[in-house]
């Protein structure tokens, strides 16, 4: 039960942080280009790469931190970082073709699914 609470608290904080960063960047740089989302995705990639590596290799840590930071906070802040982390780990394992298929497939199929969802909403 504790892990769900940690994920929920981390997720709530990540959602608020995502809104705050996106809104502040958008108000400063404009919304013609999605600068806010880009900054959120890049900072999430930096944080997930750092925390999973540092917590996993450099220090002894409670599993609770894994539920709170990468799953809860970063998961709500941006799922793009998880996609990038999984691609990196697949590359590190030497499965280059699989990593490429995952990266390109996620992009192409995700874009297609988004288009289908938008088309369905317009059709209804």
From TrEMBL:
Name the record gives this protein: Fluoride-specific ion channel FluC
Bilayer topology term: Multi-pass membrane protein
NCBIfam families: crcB
Subcellular location: Cell membrane
Pfam families linked: CRCB (PF02537)
Organism taxonomic ancestry: Bacteria, Pseudomonadati, Acidobacteriota, Terriglobia, Terriglobales
Chain residues that bind Na(+): 75, 78
Family label: Belongs to the fluoride channel Fluc/FEX (TC 1.A.43) family.
Alphabetical UniProt keywords: Cell inner membrane, Cell membrane, Ion channel, Ion transport, Membrane, Metal-binding, Sodium, Transmembrane, Transmembrane helix, Transport
Gene Ontology CC terms: plasma membrane
Organism: Occallatibacter riparius
UniProt keyword Transmembrane, yes or no: yes
Gene Ontology MF terms: fluoride channel activity; metal ion binding
Top-level lineage group: Bacteria
Keyword RNA-binding belongs to the record: no
GO biological process, one term: cellular detoxification of fluoride
Transmembrane segments: 33-56, 63-83, 95-121
Modulation of this protein's activity: Na(+) is not transported, but it plays an essential structural role and its presence is essential for fluoride channel function.
